[in-house]
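Support reply, case 0932

Customer input (verbatim):
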Amino acid sequence: MRKKLFSSVTLLSLFAALLSGCGTARPISQETNPTAEQSAEKETEDPAAVIPDVDVTDDYYSSLVRFIEASGYENQNYIISPTSFRAALALAAAGADTETKAELLSAMGFADMEELNQWYSSVIASEDNFNKWLQGAIEEYEDNKEYFGDSVKAPDGAFSLENSVWRNTKSSGELSDTYKAYVKEHYNAMAENVSAEKITDAVNGWINESTNGLIPKISNDLSSSDLVLANTVYLRTAWKEAFDEYLTAEGDFTAYDGRTVKKEFMHLRGEFAFYEDDETTLISLPMQGGVNAVFVLGNEDNALEKLRAASIETVDVTLPKFETESALSENELINFCKARGAERAFTPDADFSGMSEEMALYITDIIQKAKIKTDEGGIEAAAATVIMMVEGAAPVEEEPVIKVFTADHPFKFILFAGSETPEPLFCGQIVE
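Our regenerated output:
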């Protein structure tokens, strides 16, 4: 399994499109919300009956988060990975043909496979950039650690994008050699044959390893799926200017409904890109390896213009430590594809002949689980997306002027990575 690292970031070209639609998705909650694996097992209604009436004609990123918001996932802490979902769909599009392929590509915002592969290559290119940075930082540390002192730790970080294809041996046919070679070449995806008794543990084990244990499993039972397409995105990186632990203190956070809840707030003063007006306060905190974490209070409209107008200021930053996880497991992602015009892939009329001439496959379910943890040292985040496919009919499953950024009420966050084109790998919201 490839374990590369990546990221090198600029924020401007995708910031407005993403933030303009960055809504909320339902979090995993032990008290009230089902886990992805529980939702995958229970019977669901026809997803076509609950597709929200929302404009999804904009770009892929803003349309996706706008659609999730319109699906009823408002006023909740959340995190999703547009990148993981898109990469998993790429594995499906690679094996599709005729109208099925065209519809999937359009839903992802691409004209053809060449454009899709260029996007994926640009994301992978940033793995190499981060890998070079990390290797250089480690070598510098090893050469000079006697001068750094005991308080300086060795550089650490990881950012990986992984893909895999799992064929259930109970299926009637084999994956074509052409398809396996294509996904290996373009997405570095391994293709495995696994029995019905072992496929659940195999996929869950792969996801657990690929996300460094942050997402231990995606489903309790994948044995009824004839084919599983999987993607993971994993990030671990540190703030360039770390928050001192001794400054962390409990404080009040005003939730979306006016309730006051207690949180542990981190504090930092430094020079950061900062913008504020009567409606918006925005800050960009740089992270090791070229990642940038952007936090927005208030009105996020026209964020691109506001970020362009940002200046480097001395800012007192107050940010809560937070940990949240989400599961899109109740047809939200299928409904998004359908709303963007991809219908055939989810019916027995689908054409996935590029995967196999022997199996008449179609998509029955798409699940994404994502999680993020922040503390004084940095951020760890991961997402896993799986696409389940079956054959035939099957059931659906101070000194200077000091600016202030105090996130003690609902705020949004975005983690960007990219080489020439920034990629919004994760976005989310903390509202309670």
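We compared this against your earlier run and they match. Two observations from our side: The longest strand covers residues 260-276. Confidence is low (pLDDT under 50) at residues 1-45. Please reopen the case if you see a mismatch on your end.
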